[in-house]
Specification:
445 residues, alpha/beta, 12 strands, Rossmann fold, 45% helix, RNA-binding
Length: 445
RNA sequence: GGUCCCGUAGCCAAGUGGCUAAGGCAGCGGACUGCAACUCCGCCAUCGUCGGUUCGAAUCCGAUCGGGACCUCCA
């Protein structure tokens, strides 16, 4: 397995800290709204990372947090005139529903900031004790000048930044890049701390959770490319201060989704939510996997339709093979080995282990689909069909492409054979009736 | 001002020094078929522009044009 590491800016061989185990953390959502299709990219991609490692035999400890205390949450709760707890509960559930719809697993450790106050305040206290943070009027800031490596991840010189380019400079800070660890809060949900009532800063939340949950450096830390600076830079600064390491061996960042239809641009304020996707979510998942994860992902109606149709095509082949094999009761048979199929499988895995090159992996999946279609046109190629089908299933599992089919009932089998007989006897009225029924059952497609 | 991406056929997208530039969609031409759908076979690009390095470049360097990200809480 080779992975591009933002920290070293190069592709590196993956070496787990503990053999056979991958400890990974992905920055989760701030739960104040539904997630949009851009948020869906890491949800899909890092799920595939996890599945790939699991296929390779690793135990993956996957953690992704919920930021459930934040200014945006306070603002949104006021807008909707509900309390913050109700708001975050609503959107945590909505998030998990979307994750499920996108075909990613929801079975992972998902710590909430509000439930980690003790570890977080302890973490901040340690930073103050060791001289890396300072308190001003109930706020606590991290002192970036105390961190000699500050800028190591994002390759920035702290004094060359255009200060206040987006946000007014806060004069309580010793240096404009100093970031908030604890923020004095007068409204909304607040927590007590040695520095008075307030709430934790976002950057310290993730760092403290990782510290508490894993207790050591982790293998992989992931998130969107926009998090490189300042969020992940700040996480590294804190870990470096307390533990003299970079928090994670490998930092992975997915590129952004680009909507090139101006009518749907962010500047127009029209955001597409995952919950509002009208196509099969698997089509969207395939679209996401069709592009290398670090490259920008082009999204528009045409690309969405292309991949949705592609998914229909793949699904059709899979389903036809499934029923063809079920009809002759071969689904549970032992598959033989065929070099042509082994090669496609191996190439697929090679692509996946080459920094998760899903775009290349898909070409081998397409080749397998084609092979399966060729074999289904032949009269008696069931052995090789079975082998191809089983391998396609493996690829589906790694990519998280979901399809559930029910095995044929006795009635289904009768209907199928009746259809075949009707065609043979040139009773086309009856054949068409049966074809329609079989299509409704999903057996013919 | 700083850091960093990208520009490959109508569309999406691999490839990052060397056989005739993957793959998919769309298109075109065939085959199969009771009809239709599905499916299969075949065809379809010299890599934004200019210059340089090299025996050899889409791949390296420079310039230029065009698009984009980040520079305090946005995946």
């Amino acid at each position: 397995m080779r992975i591009f590491n933002t920290l070293t800016h190069s592709v590196e061989p993956f070496k787990p800290i503990h053999p056979g185990t991958v400890n990974m953390y992905v920055c989760g959502p701030t739960v104040y709204n539904f997630i949009h299709i851009g948020n869906a990219r890491p949800v899909i991609f890092f799920d595939v990372v996890r599945r790939t490692f699991e296929y390779l035999g690793y135990t993956v400890n996957f953690v992704s947090n919920f930021t459930d205390v934040d200014d945006k949450i306070i603002t949104r709760a006021k807008e909707l005139e509900i309390d913050e707890i109700a708001l975050t509960q609503t959107f945590i559930k909505a998030f998990l529903d979307d994750v499920e719809r996108l075909g990613s697993t929801t079975k992972y450790l998902a710590p909430k900031a509000t439930e980690y106050m003790q570890p977080i305040t302890n973490y901040i206290a340690q930073l103050i004790d060791q001289g890396f943070a300072y308190e001003v009027d109930g706020d606590v800031y991290f002192d970036v000048k105390k961190s000699p490596e500050y800028g190591i991840l994002s390759n920035r010189q702290i004094d060359e930044q255009e200060l206040g380019s987006r946000i007014a400079v806060n004069d309580k800070k010793r240096h404009p890049l100093d970031f908030t660890l604890w923020k004095k809060t007068t409204e909304g949900v607040k927590f007590s701390s040695p520095w008075g009532e307030g709430r934790p800063g976002w950057h310290t939340e993730c760092a403290a959770m990782i510290d508490d949950i894993f207790g050591e450096k982790i293998d992989i830390h992931g998130g969107g490319a926009d998090l490189v600076f300042p969020h992940h830079e700040n996480e590294i600064a804190q870990a470096n201060a307390l533990h003299h390491h970079h928090l994670a061996n490998i930092w992975m960042h997915n590129g952004h989704l680009q909507i090139d239809d101006s009518k749907m641009s962010k500047s127009e304020g029209t955001v597409i939510y995952v919950k509002d996707l009208t196509v099969d979510p698997m089509g969207f998942r395939l679209l996401t996997l069709g592009t290398y994860y670090r490259a920008p992902l082009m999204f528009n109606d045409e690309t969405l339709n292309t991949y949705t149709n592609e998914w229909e095509r793949i699904k059709r082949t899979y389903s036809q093979a499934f029923y063809a094999l079920d009809l002759i009761e071969m689904l549970d048979s032992e598959a033989k080995n065929y070099p042509d199929i082994e090669i496609l499988h191996d190439r697929f895995i090679d692509a996946m282990t080459d920094d998760f090159n899903t775009a290349n992996a898909l070409t081998h999946l397409y080749a397998l689909v084609k092979l399966l279609n060729q074999k289904m046109r032949e009269e008696d190629a069931f052995d090789i069909m079975l082998a191809a089908f089983n391998n396609l299933k493996i690829m589906f599992n790694i990519l998280g492409l979901r399809i559930s089919l029910k095995r044929l009932s006795k009635a289904d089998r009768h209907m199928y054979h009746a259809w075949k007989d009707a065609r043979k006897n040139r009773d086309f009225d009856r054949a068409d009736q049966l074809r329609e029924k079989l299509s409704e059952r999903g057996i013919l497609s």
